[in-house]
């Protein structure tokens, strides 16, 4: 019994941001019904990294646990009516259709809120519901580039640096998740539902609260230096440094102490706040040269013993094998009926009384169509007729 047990979510989203947000609601116990076309949601047919899976590719598998699948043709009048009937008892409706599509399908906020005034309707978009960019594709890399974030790291002679994650999709998912929870809390207090609008551009922009305030309030330009630096608004040294056998990261070390540990006279006696900005390139350059002299393990042992902020640079194999990850139970392992033994990241929030749980893995297309329609009191004869007509789908 998760903290959201008893709430029903209709997930009409595709790709990553929407399904990820809905999955988080499902992880906390909500009954999430994934409403997808009879041919299956787009992500089922677009495997990330070529990981195709058996019947469900890994990309879809990772974003759609704890959901039931209803395969239905919303362009068919009977199919749309099924969704409208589900809306009557739903708590959250989540969609990331292209602007205008929800209205054309007859599942826009005005239509659905008239059926269920208590509905929390979460609408996700790339750039907003209107405006000059309304028809631009809302894709992660495009939004990373537009956000300005790519020019906060690296060196001046390097190309802009994208993140190593689907960063905009992820932060948009969490923003929508947060919005849905806040709107549900409001409904608990007042009884009224509302429209919650989230867009990728605002999500990635507001994520940079500190950096952009340094620019807009502090009037500090976003300037990359000659030496590679992990963030233009953090004092040196701050970044990835090669060692004799690999790489480590060093963050905001005290310059005099670091100078003594790496035997670098230039750093000794420098003022951390003033000189770390004035001599940023020189500091990075001399640290880069000195750290080539020992192994990663040696530097990490020495720096940690003297309270220098540092750490290893992991690949995924290192992360999965890390003892703290094992201690935290960060990954969950379960048996999926078609994909076999599955290991994926688990639940980032821990509740003492209402913990998140895995109730089911990602569903097959329409795996729960019959179950959902039976919940609407449709007879087996009617369900068979809808299946035969292609209005709904089931395995």
UniProtKB/TrEMBL annotation:
Native organism: Nitrospirillum viridazoti CBAmc
InterPro entries found in the cross-reference section: CoA-transferase_III_domain, CoA-Trfase_fam_III, CoA-Trfase_III_dom_1_sf
Keywords, ordered alphabetically: Transferase
Name used for this protein in its record: CoA transferase
Signal peptide stretch: none
Superkingdom of origin organism: Bacteria
Keyword Phosphoprotein: no
Organism phylogeny: Bacteria, Pseudomonadati, Pseudomonadota, Alphaproteobacteria, Rhodospirillales
Any one GO molecular function term: CoA-transferase activity
Keyword Transferase on entry: yes
């Amino acid at each position: 019994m998760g903290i959201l047990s008893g709430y029903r979510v209709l997930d009409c989203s595709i790709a990553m941001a929407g399904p990820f947000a809905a999955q988080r609601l499902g992880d906390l116990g909500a009954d999430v019904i994934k409403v997808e076309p009879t041919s299956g949601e787009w992500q089922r047919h677009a495997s990330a990294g070529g990981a195709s899976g058996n019947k469900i590719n890994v990309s879809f598998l990772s974003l759609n646990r704890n959901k039931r699948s209803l395969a239905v043709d919303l362009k068919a009048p009977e199919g749309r009516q099924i969704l409208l009937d589900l809306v009557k008892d739903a708590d959250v409706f989540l969609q990331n259709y292209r602007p205008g599509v929800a209205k054309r399908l007859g599942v826009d906020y005005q239509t659905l809120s008239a059926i269920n005034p208590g509905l929390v309707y979460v609408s996700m978009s790339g750039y907003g519901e209107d405006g000059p960019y309304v028809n631009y594709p809302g894709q992660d890399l495009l939004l990373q580039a537009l956000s300005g974030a790519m020019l906060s790291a690296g060196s001046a002679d390097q190309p802009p640096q994208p993140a190593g994650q689907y960063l905009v999709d992820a932060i948009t998912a969490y923003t929508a998740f947060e919005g849905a929870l806040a709107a549900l809390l409001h409904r608990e207090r007042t009884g009224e539902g509302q429209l919650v609008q989230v867009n990728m551009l605002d999500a990635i922009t507001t994520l940079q609260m500190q950096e952009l305030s340094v620019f807009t309030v502090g009037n500090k330009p976003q300037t990359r230096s000659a030496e590679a630096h992990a963030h233009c608004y953090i004092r040196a040294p701050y970044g990835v440094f090669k060692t004799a056998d690999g790489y480590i990261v060093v963050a905001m070390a005290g310059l005099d102490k670091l100078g003594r540990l790496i035997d670098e006279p230039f750093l000794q006696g420098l003022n951390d706040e003033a000189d770390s900005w004035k001599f940023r390139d020189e500091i990075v350059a001399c640290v880069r040269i000195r750290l080539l002299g020992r192994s990663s393990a040696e530097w990490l042992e020495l720096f940690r013993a003297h309270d220098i902020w540092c750490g290893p640079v992991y690949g995924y194999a290192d992360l999965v094998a890390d003892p703290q990850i094992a201690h935290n139970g960060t990954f969950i392992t379960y048996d999926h009926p078609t994909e076999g033994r599955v290991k994926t990241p688990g639940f980032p929030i821990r509740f003492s009384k209402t913990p998140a749980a895995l109730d089911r893995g990602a569903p097959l297309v329409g795996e729960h169509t019959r179950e959902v329609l039976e919940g609407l009191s449709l007879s087996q004869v009617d369900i068979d007729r809808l299946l035969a007509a292609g209005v709904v789908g089931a395995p």
